[in-house]
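Following the same procedure, sequence and fold were stored together, as reproduced here:

>
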Amino acid sequence: MATLAHAHLAPVELDETDDEPGSVRSPTWGRRHVARLAGAGAALLLGLVAGQAALDAHERARLEYLADVPGVLSPLHDPPAALRSWAPDAGALVAEDTAGLWTVGARYHPGGVDLRGTDPDTGDVLWSVPFSLDAALPPGGRSEFPSVRVRCTTTTSPDGPRAICAAEVAPVRSGGAATPLLVLDPLTGTTLASRTLEPGALWSATGTHLVVATPQRDTAGDVRWTLAATDPATGDVRWRRSTPVVPEVHAVRIGDRVIRSQADLASDEDRVLLTDSGHAWLYGADGEPRGDVTVEADGWAELARADTVVWTPWQAFAIAAGVLVTRDGTRVPVGERPAHLAVDDGSAPDVVLLADSEDPGVAALVGRDATSGEELWRLSGTTGDALLVDGVVHVAQGRDVRALDARTGESHWLAHVGTPPVYLGTDGSLVVVVTADRTLRGFGRTDGRLASVADVARHLAPDPGGVDQVSEYGGRLLVRFRDGSGIVVG
């Protein structure tokens, strides 16, 4: 581990001289004013202490706020340390608490899957619930050893968090597959509700609601969708909306190519977006229609930050062919798609972040005004997911990490890492960088100064090789190595 140098205060000698040659200072002046000087000194000291206390309180409040932002790590130890080992049979992470109190994993086995609640620090299994797949089994039943993928999301409620999990089973029977849904208390594993979505139905969640979109098709080849938002545990309907009837189109021939698409339902904290057959309908989390954001019937739409939507054509063009639908409905031609953000604390609400490619090292991160769509800045050569905290974007750029103002693009600092990062995250105070050589570095988030360096595999034997994958895991870092092993770092 590298040793960091710390600055120390050095003594300073004061040279007391008369203000003017020949001036005389009364020896009794200090004694006469000692009480006044002492009082002024005490007041200054109290002011400094009170000011520091206010700054400390503000910093604590800020860190407590960031702890609830998805993707933010729990504060790392100094130096960072391995909390426990990890093995593939621990199961795939499917849901987690933003405060790092619990995680839910899916442990797959032939013919089925179990959901398990674990302690993110110790890995102890707190509860285990089998996920029934009977309603979605393929024609041959369990003898076909179906492939299963579990997708979960969380909602809030006055009684605590809710984990909503769906099992997608393959192969799919003729006519589509039903989707089993399970609603759990992630702290105890208590099953709160279970239901099965009919073939073709879509689901998502926003705020406290489970949103299900169900298609109604007619013999003419048209489709209308009905969206229903319900309480996940009780099933009580909070709102219901229907789309217009549109021609159902899931394949478009462009030259000798056939482009296929599927209907999709997406959501964030404030919006729900349904796309199908080239159409896109936007709703508020309260069910209030926000309009038909369809651009053309040969593409799809995605939610972007700052209340914007990006439409992208099915066919890839050599020129900018996408459209940014801004918060006031303005439509601006763009050549980018919504950027992936590992952390977004909601700051810089007037800026939408886009990326023009997903290829590492050649992508450009772009900031645009969320109302006009005007390009504010462009940063080329970026890699991986960016972070947005307190109005500052942090992103890997080649062998460096750069921090820049989300609105102006002005660079705040540039930290040289020496090798391309494989992970970029934050615990609120540090920008955490992990490289393929197993080195974890922590840079001050506000000034970019190197604050911590550690080899995350220094206590492992035998040598696990280089880093394969790094991901946030219940507020901790899960580092997986090339030999298949892994550790949880905190």
The longest strand covers residues 375-389. Residues 339-452 form a domain with the Lipocalin fold (CATH 2.40.128.630). Residues 29-67 form the longest helix (39 residues).
